[in-house]
Amino acid sequence: MSFDLDFIEGSAPRKKLREALAEIGFVEEARYFKHPDTNFFLEFPPGPLSVGREPVKEVITLEFSTGPLKIISPTDCVKDRLAGFYHWQDKQCLEQAILVAGTQEIDLEEIARWSKVEGKLGEFRKIKRLLAKEKP
Predict the structure, then answer these.
(1) Of 43, 53, 101, 118, which has fewest CB within 10 angstroms of its CB?
(2) How confident is the model at residue 118 (pLDDT cuts 50, 70, 90)?
(3) Would you say residue 9 has pLDDT above 90?
């Protein structure tokens, strides 16, 4: 399982990001920010955000009192998890894709199209039924 949390930097200069995270105890190590009180670490890959070979299709903005939080759609989340399964045979990634698909509305046709672009349509056909289960 991966313990990194990915955030796209946007327009914030790396220096400001480093300073803000240092205030709450994070230390920059290589391309990550680590905190002594958690196994999770932060990564800020350059944009644009992509899943496999394609840019993310939909970004959802959630509004909070502290400001907006942009997240990817459930469909793109499933594609992201399947990328880990397809390219690195990471079974936890497949389990995570199934969990998201089981609780959220996803576009299976879009996932099939994307899987074909990734050269993994055969693998998708083998697992499609796991992603298509009835929602609770």
Answers:
(1) 53
(2) very high
(3) no
